[in-house]
Design goal:
CATH architecture of the largest domain: 3-Layer(aba) Sandwich
CATH topology of the largest domain: Rossmann fold
CATH superfamily of the largest domain: HAD superfamily/HAD-like
Distance between the termini: 9 Å
Number of strands: 8
Radius of gyration: 17 Å
Order of helices and strands: EEHHHHEHEHEHEHEHEH
Number of domains: 2
């Protein structure tokens, strides 16, 4: 029986891309590099802030550790100024969360974004009563390593097989399978359906209403 749902943040619960781009481009401008487009930033995300910054730098310096580390430090400073400027929940997500909560599911968030920003974004947009636990990048390995996902499941008092992981990327698919959790992909996020299918996703929701039905259907299957 499914008892808990763990959500990715960026591209799943919220559209955060413009604020991420603002933070990255502030760093690139300071360093004298060409700014990145939304489409480029779209390709660089999902593997944590360091990898985002590294990929955003020009190719000839992406392998220079001290430049990457310095740019990452600057990015953390710049993103802190803008991370809630335009970030919003996707349409229908808040209704979905309240419906799941009413039906007794425990809810969690797992992101490769910096932990402080994950907690603040969730609190600002959804309040403090929806999710049992929200976890970003800490001293634990980032997704797709399953450590954080398993930690969240344990914190909510559930077994991995009682959890559904919901996300928009191949990283999320791999995380769920390595953690022994079911997976449902979302079609509105930062990776296309082909990418999710290739990664192994068999259920992909086109909208939050369909996601709710998919979770309930999966729960019914588990009960049979």
């Amino acid at each position: 029986m499914i008892k808990a749902v763990i959500f990715d943040l960026d591209g799943t619960l919220c559209d955060t891309l413009n604020d991420i781009r603002t933070g990255v481009n502030a760093v690139l401008e300071r360093l004298g590099y060409k700014p990145r487009t939304r489409s480029e930033i779209h390709k660089f995300i999902n593997n944590g802030a360091r990898e985002l910054v590294r990929r955003s730098l020009p190719a000839d310096v992406q392998g220079v550790d001290f430049i990457v580390e310095s740019a990452l430090s600057d990015y953390n400073m710049e993103y802190a100024k803008c991370y809630c400027d335009t970030t919003t929940a996707y349409e229908g997500v808040e209704v979905l969360l309240h419906e799941l909560k009413k039906k007794g599911f425990k809810l969690g968030v797992l992101s490769n974004k910096q932990n402080e920003y994950v907690k603040n974004i969730i609190s600002n947009i959804f309040g403090d009563d929806i999710f049992s636990i929200c976890l970003g990048q800490t001293d634990m390995p980032t997704k797709p390593d399953p450590t954080s996902a398993l930690y969240i499941a344990k914190s909510m008092g559930t077994k991995p097989e009682q959890c559904v992981f919901v996300g928009d990327s191949d990283v999320d698919v791999e995380t769920s399978y390595r953690a022994g959790m079911s997976f449902i992909g979302v079609k509105w996020g930062y990776r296309d359906e082909i990418t999710l299918r290739k990664a192994g996703a068999s259920i992909i929701a086109e909208n939050p209403e369909m996601l709710l039905n998919s979770i309930l259907d999966l729960n019914n299957e588990e009960e049979e």
